[in-house]
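Bench notes, afternoon.
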Amino acid sequence: MDLIQIIALGIIQGLTEFLPVSSSAHLVLISIVMGWEDQGLFMDVAAHAGSLIAVMGYFRKELRDMIRAVLNPNAPENQETLHLISAIVVATIPIIVAGLLMADFIEQYLRSAHVIAFTTILFALALAYADKAGKELHDEYKLCWKGVLFIGFAQIFALIPGTSRSGVTMTAGLIMGLSKVAAARFSFLLSMPTILAAILYKSMQLASSQVDMDIAAALGVFVLSGVVAYLCIEAFVRLVNIVGMMPFVIYRLILGVLLFAFI
């Protein structure tokens, strides 16, 4: 893997893991344009590990609060945090189960440029609807169990390439009454166990495969994706109330059209 591909992979992973756009759509498009081969499992693990460290670093205060709440669950001031922990756990279960059951089917039948182009456009329209219809009633600490389950089952769609995990969870969060900032924050918090599960799954695949491991390239992807992801999360949380979701909807629509044009 050359330097340009390392930089492109790190930046694309860092940006698209948390923005409501599709990482797979970007990787497919740039691979078509540049003539690159798939980056492989080892680079996938490195890129996702960088994203995970970034989101954990950004939410370090919330993670400390969660640890304190677990250690002292009876304290009244910890009840909202315990509810948030429970919401993250419950909302993660559907995608873990679906991922284990459907991984082979998705890999065989859905990992195509046409599917990615279609879902990029389809879920752009879903995000546009949520952006307009969302009531923005409360934050992530007051998310009801109906909302938790809705977001959790909606996250299953993220297994389909082109959907965008952050995009579909923000869409579901807005529909269930979260504010734009809360929908983004819950999506980012929800990414931690999901990304960790993806890393573990791909690491097990990697352990049973015979692939060359370019440590230097993987380290570059890890660092770059982590730095870009952290800056991306910080900027998005600060700006989402100002810019809303429509710029990302328009971007996704253009991206989907470009994919159909190239494939």
